[in-house]
Structures are given as structure tokens and as C-alpha cells.
Amino acid sequence: GQGANLRSFNVLPDDNSITNVMASIEGVATGVIGEGVAANYMEGSGWMGSLSAIDLHSGYWIMVSEDDVLLLMGEPTSRELPYTLHEGANLISYPFRYATVLEEAIPEGIGCDISGIIGEGVAALCNESGWAGSLSSLEGSYGYWFIAEEAMEITFNGCDEQECASLSRQSQNLSTVPEGYEYKQSTTQAFYFIEDIENIEIGDWILSFNGDEVIGARQWQGAIIDVPAMGDDGSDYTKGYMEAGEVPSFKILRGDELINLEGDIPEWSNNQLYIVSSLTEAVALPEAFSLDRAYPNPFNPTTKLSFALPVTSNVLLEVYDINGRLINQLIKGVMDAGYHSVVWNADAHSSGVYFVKLHAGDYVKTQKLMLVK
């Protein structure tokens, strides 16, 4: 597919040079990125860079300028050679031809020492109850980032015969992104595992944004879900996507309606898996300053005073008696934009007429209150 493709090779020829392996898409393949190595195709000069040969254990981002098919003839690589993983993120292959569910593909005893796996636009997170996320199986010809909590060696289980293949492919549970909200796969990506979303319904879409740019999407199926957030990898396809330290925003797409969400969302960083316990519907900011009618009014001895701030402002909320004397300063200081309220307890004051005055920025509003005991 045009752009970035996360692939690996479980069949390789004797000549595993990048020039030979990429021969069928020469001129369409513009670059290959491995873990800490890369090669760039230069017209007239061929492949240049630190990546000179394809390794059977490794995964690679293959960048292509248009849709194409990579054709390769060779021998199956060894399925029994161990993979040596270092602590952190490892970009590796999966040797067996057919899809194998994670629980079977990963050898017993590993547990959550492999804390997460990231594929092309999909991810899985290890927890006490097993694996959660959109990535449910491993399959030959795909590349994966394995997040290891410590250095280790593993030898995968799997299947090269169709009869023993898993019924589910790694992307079977992913639906087509709604028209108008498509995004490009990036070589840099993070995933936000969201456990709960206020008022969400089965079939709703959860979209991730950087400003106005859609950077990921997932359809809600009623359980914890991994929403991708693509990063800016320097290509033309991903301009405006996430950069380290930025925080994505999330919205529900229901029909043609977009609903803003808010919550405790971690800063974005490449190849990270984050857990977000909950997101709630964001209350829209007011369009203008206002001071609502006190409720109740008349009152005894408490009343609620509510006001709206369209922007962060210096706020002064005071109560005066009928003679214009200041008797209570309820709020003094900077307050965020939004809807706010405070309760005035007039138990220490006598019955009569009082005035509440809101001063926010250049906005000034006074309201009469009646205390009746």
C-alpha cells in the first residue's frame, strides 16, 4: 500500500541483499527502515544506507510511492531459530506462514514479560486476563514491535499448513474507517487502550486527532480498545501528525455527529502503549460571559450563583448590602474557561436586599438577591 508497510520475510533467497529482495518493486520502493538501520533508494545509484541485507529475524517498514506487489522467490527460513530480544522495543518477524493466535504463538512461561506487541496500525497489551486489543494473532510476512520487560530468547510456535491455521487474521476485527476520516499509516505510532467511555454505544467510532488532523480510528465493540495515534515520521503523508510531547484528542463519531471527549490522556511518544481508564463527554465552552439568575431567589440562608467564562479570566465575585458596602468576597483569582458556580451562605446576615457583582475581564454584571428569614 502507498506509504508505510510493516513487513517481514519468512522466505528468503540465497542472495538476501536489499537490492535483490526489493528488485520486483525497484523504483516504487523509496526506503526501508529497520530497527536502528535504514536504506534509501536513489534513482541511478540504487540503495544507499546502513541497511544492506534483509535479516530473517527482523521486521521492516517498507515505504512505497504507490500500491504494488513485492514478489520474492526463495527458501523458507528456519522456524526453530530463537529470537534474541533486548529490553524495550524489538522490531522482529514471525516465521510461520499462517496466522496463529497470540496465546498459542508465544511460548508458555513468557507471561507479561512481553508487555505489548505493536503491528501495522494494530496493537495488543498483556494484562492479568490475557491479551487485549485489535491484534489477536501473528502471521508470516508481517513485522511486529515486541515490547520486552527484560532481555530474553524466545522460539515461536506456529503453523505452515492451512489445516492448522487460525481462523482469525490479525486485522479481521478492524472495520473500514468512515469516509472523510481516513488517515495514513506512519512508521511512528502509539496506541491508547481506552477502558471506558461515557455514553458510548456499540458501533460508534472513536477517532484520535492532532488538532484537526485525524490520526487514528477504532470502532467500539463494548470492551477495552486500542485507538492508534499516528506520528509525524517526516514523510509527506504524515505532516501534521503527532510529535513527542504532544497530547492527542479523542472524539466519538456517531452518524454525522462528532462528540468531544476529555480525560487524563498521556503525552504521545513513539512505540508506546498507554492505558486510559475513562473518557467523558466534554462540556462545550460558553460563547459569552454571563451571570445566571441565582437559585433559589428569594432564599434562606443559601443560594447558588452560576456564571460562564468563554476564556480564562481574572474573576471577582462579591456581595454588597443595600447601602453598597462589601460584605462577602466569594471569588478572587484566575479561573479557567467554562461553567462555574458557588454557594453563598448568608446565615450570618439579616433579611433584606443584597447585590452580587461579577467582574470577569471587561465584563461586569450585577444581580439583586433577596434574603428572607
Summarize the entry for a quick read.
The protein is mainly β.
Report the principal-axis shape. Answer: elongated
N-to-C CA distance: 76 Å
What's the Cα radius of gyration? 29 Å
The largest pleated sheet is described as: 5 strands, antiparallel
Work out the number of β strands. Answer: 31
Quaternary organization: single chain
Enumerate how many helices there are, as a single number.
2
| Class computed from helices, strands and strand pairing | mainly beta
Explained architecture:
- The protein has 373 residues and is mainly beta.
- It is 2% helix and 43% strand.
- The termini are far apart.
- Mean pLDDT is 93; it is low at 168-173.
